[in-house]
Amino acid sequence: MSTDPARVRLDKWLWAARFYKTRSLAKTAVEGGKVHLNGARTKPAKEVTPGDRLTVTRGEVEQIVMVVNVSERRGSATIAATLYEETPESIDTRERIRAERRMRAAGLTVPKSRPNKKQRRALRDLKTTG
What we know:
Radius of gyration: 21 Å
CATH architecture: Roll
Strand content: 15-25%
Shape: elongated
Number of strands: 7
CATH class: Alpha Beta
CATH superfamily: RNA-binding S4 domain
CATH topology: Structural Genomics Hypothetical 15.5 Kd Protein In mrcA-pckA Intergenic Region, Chain A
Number of helices: 5
Largest sheet: 5 strands, antiparallel
Number of domains: 1
Distance between the termini: 69 Å
Order of helices and strands: EHHEEEEEHEHH
């Protein structure tokens, strides 16, 4: 058991910060290599301190957060948000992935290259007749 109030088990912190619904899911994610502490794979019992850098991968989204505060108790979402600070690069990447997912859901895809002459003519015809 940790006696230092500024140190908390990684799986407990992930649960308290609301990255995972249960501590068991947090433990499974850490053991599965979905969570890295300071750039290295770690174990669920590893203690987290303020200033640590966590990389949390959930689905296709990867969040990079800095631990600001530690807590063993799970509180409201507003309290959980005070436990960490997401890096600007992580926010940008997450927003880009979200926008791409929305475009795919709407049936839009970004072409891999510029249209050739035949495709440009087809687009022009589509725009004038539509």
